[in-house]
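[job 4471] stage=fold_predict status=RUNNING
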Amino acid sequence: MKFVRLETFSCIRMLRRCLALFVVLLCGVTVDDARGADKPNILFLLSDDQAWTDYSFMGHEMIQTPHIDALAKDGVLFRRGYVPTPLCRPSLMSLATGHYASTHGVTGNDPSRKHYTGPAKNEARAALIAKIDAFDTLPELLVEQGYVCHQSGKWWEGNFSRGGFTHGMTRGFPEPGGRHGDDGLKIGRKGLAACTDFIDMAVEEEKPFYMWYAPFMPHAPHTPPKAYLAKYEGRVPLPVAKYYAMCEWFDATCGELLAHLDAKGIRENTLVVYVGDNGWIQHPEHANRYDKRSKQTCYEGGIRQPTIYSWPGTLAAQDRAELVSSIDIFPTILAAAGARQPARPVPGLNLLDAMKMKTPVAREAIFGESFAHDIVDLGDPEKSLVYRWCIKGRWKLLLSYDGELGPYKSSHDYDKLPQLFDLVVDPHEKNNLAADKPDVVAELASQIDAWYPLKTAKLLP
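[job 4471] inference complete, writing structure tokens
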């Protein structure tokens, strides 16, 4: 298969790469030293719109996910994993840059159709994509180490090369249909040749590789093969059966990629990382539609995502109870690859040593935020702010704000009061204990303010 290499980066990105090389040379490390052949391959498996409950290993009584189950059993499983924001694009941008949405600026999927019209609409789309140029991306930092990097599936930030990938599928805006993955959205649903061919090429050229596998799965439209649907049809409402079948189909594609690593004899030298971009609770009556307290909200159904790190021979199997965030994936992968951390410090934790030595993760609390689907003002995230949240131990505080929701108001049918939940006894957040635990609310609210100070957003009600 012929691969396309694009090197058309912005002046900012090229300048940053030159500065990075200067730092490497200044520290006395040659490029050849930095590009050792012993670097692990990295396979990043990204589910798209799947709830934290919807795996066999998380206790689902019906959905079958044997391949991800095996990863969870043999790898390091963090059952209490989270994403900082419950919407596709900002969540993926955080994985690419290692920063929260309020920092990287891509807080929603699209500029507001109300506030950006006419020629300003496309100008805003281009300006939103350009925000990635201000950051060292994960692929960019891995390329410095001699990696070849492949993008497949969901990718919003223009052409794959804009994110630092050396190879990829997405043409990106302003190409026709270049919104959230275009050609890349075929992966998984229409075979895996682009991924397996890339792996074969990397192995043949004896180069370490990084693969971003983010298929449009189990994301709607829910169009599973009949063989998968037959396992669930008649047992639950049809819209739910189709979603369940999509989860299993996605799992099967992950299994195919893992089997290809085995066939090439490179599994033990490959770090596999698994997480979802955000949650999804299938509406029982409406096909391809999510239910309340799901995607776009900061309830568990929107943000909780079990996270797995699998590296046979390096990381022993562990089932861990600590809180982790997808923000941690960026520095952890860089550490595994022996790459430099970016000049602009990232907020996540490098979990590699804690996993290797089976020591506790040095963290008390994790944080997150959520903004409206459509961005009201590209220069002021607070105008679209809907939630800030914190989890510390058993407690979770969710605060609601006055951000403009736009056309997706129904996604935010929630109690606007401060909400405090005891996740140990109430993991599905049925009982708001804020009125009974004012001291806990005050403590967590203070930590949220210290994490992300606000200037203009107003707390509801």
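[job 4471] summary: The chain has a mean pLDDT of 93.
[job 4471] exit 0
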